[in-house]
Amino acid sequence: METLFISHGSPTLCIDDGIPARRFLKSWRDKGVISEVPRAILVISGHYDTSVPTINVVDGVNDTIYDFYGFPRAMYKLKYPAPGAPDLAKKVKQLLDNAGFGKVKEEENRGLDHGAWVPLMLMYPEANIPVCQLSVQSRRDGTYHYNMGKALAPLREEGVLIMGSGNATHNLRAIGPDGGPIATWALDFDTWLKESLLNGRYEDVNHYEEKGPCGKMAHPWPDHFYPLHVAMGAAGDEAKAELIHHSWTNCTISYASYKFTTQN
C-alpha cells in the first residue's frame, strides 16, 4: 500500500467547488492514484496535536468534529460516520511502543477532526472504511516524525492506508485574497519541497528549517507539516515520491499533495 500526504487547506474544501483540490479529491479514485481500496485508514492530522503520541480508539462510529469557527452553517451539518478502527489503533500503539516512543495514550471519545473527515468525505464518500487518527507532537522535530512513520511501515503490508493530512505551506497570518499573486516565500518553499521530495532528499526535508528557503515563514508552527514526515517515513528511505496534485489559494496556501511508493 502506498502512503499519502494530502494538503487539506481551508475547511471550505468540503463545500466549495471553486477549490481545485476539491475536484481532484472527488475524482482521485478514477485517476487510479492508489492501487487498491484500503482495509483501514490511519490519518495523521495537523489538527491533532498532543504532548505525547495519542491514538483515538473508537469502538463504533466516529463522531464528526467541527474544529473551526465562523464558517457557513451548512458545514456544521455535514457528517462523516466512518466506523472506528480499534484493532488498528491497538496495532499502532504496539508498533510505537516497540519502537521506543514511550507510552502511547488512547482516547476513546475523540472522533475525526476536519483534517481527517474533510478530505476523506471527498475521497471515500461512502464512509465505509474504518478510520483512526494518530496525533503529531509539534514540539518535536521532523526526524522524530519520520521515525514514527518508519515504525508504522508494517501496517502497509496489512492493507492500511497511512495518510498525512496538513499543508505544504501553512501561514494563516500571511494569507491574501484568492486569485492574487503567489507570495515569493511560499513559492520558493513549495518549489524546494517538490524538488527535494521528487529527488529523494528526505533527510533535507526532515531538516527543512535549515535546508529549505523560508521554512519558518512557510510553517511558523510545524503541526501541518509533520504529517508529511510520517507519511514519508512510513514509505521508507528508498520510496519514490510523486506529486499528485498542485494548486494554490489565498496567495500563500499550497495544496501540493504527494504519494510515496516503496521501491521493490
TrEMBL record:
Keyword Metal-binding among record annotations: yes
Cofactors: Zn(2+)
Keywords attached to this entry: Dioxygenase, Metal-binding, Oxidoreductase, Zinc
UniProt cross-references to SUPFAM superfamilies, sorted A to Z: LigB-like
Extradiol ring-cleavage dioxygenase class III enzyme subunit B domain mapped to chain residues: 3-260
UniProt cross-references to InterPro entries, sorted A to Z: Extradiol_dOase_DODA, Xdiol_dOase_suB
A GO term for molecular function: oxidoreductase activity, acting on single donors with incorporation of molecular oxygen, incorporation of two atoms of oxygen
Protein family (similarity comment): Belongs to the DODA-type extradiol aromatic ring-opening dioxygenase family.
Name used for this protein in its record: Extradiol ring-cleavage dioxygenase class III enzyme subunit B domain-containing protein
Phylogenetic classification of the source organism: Eukaryota, Viridiplantae, Streptophyta, Embryophyta, Tracheophyta
